[in-house]
Amino acid sequence: MSTATNAAAAPPQGGFGRFWRALRELFHEVVAAVFAVLALAWLNAAFRAWTRDVAPWLVGIAVAVALLFAFFAVTSFRRARKL
Question: Are the C-beta atoms of 64 and 13 separated by less than 8 Å?
Fold first, then answer.
């Protein structure tokens, strides 16, 4: 491998570049954690509604929102990992 190929694969970063990358990674991880907590809250609401004999479509909506938030959490954690 030539040095030109290595330089293209991993560009050198100064102090600010490393700080900015760490800040973006931290942002994605915090957002993912918030989405994960919200997903758990919606699952808790769905379970409580299910045990209290609420209309099944309301339970389904709560589960769907929880799955959507879980998807957002996973994708945000993966994006933070790619940085």
Answer: no
Other Cβ atoms less than 10 A from the Cβ of 80: the count is 17
Does 46 fall in a domain?
Answer: yes
Domain assignment present for 21: no
**CA dist., res. 53 & res. 35, Å (int):** 27
Per-residue pLDDT tens for 47-71? Answer: 999 999 899 999 999 999 999 999 9
Tokens matching residue 11: 């560009």
Global pTM value: 0.75
CA angle 46, 52, 54 (to 5 degrees): 70
For residue 24, the 8-state DSSP code is H
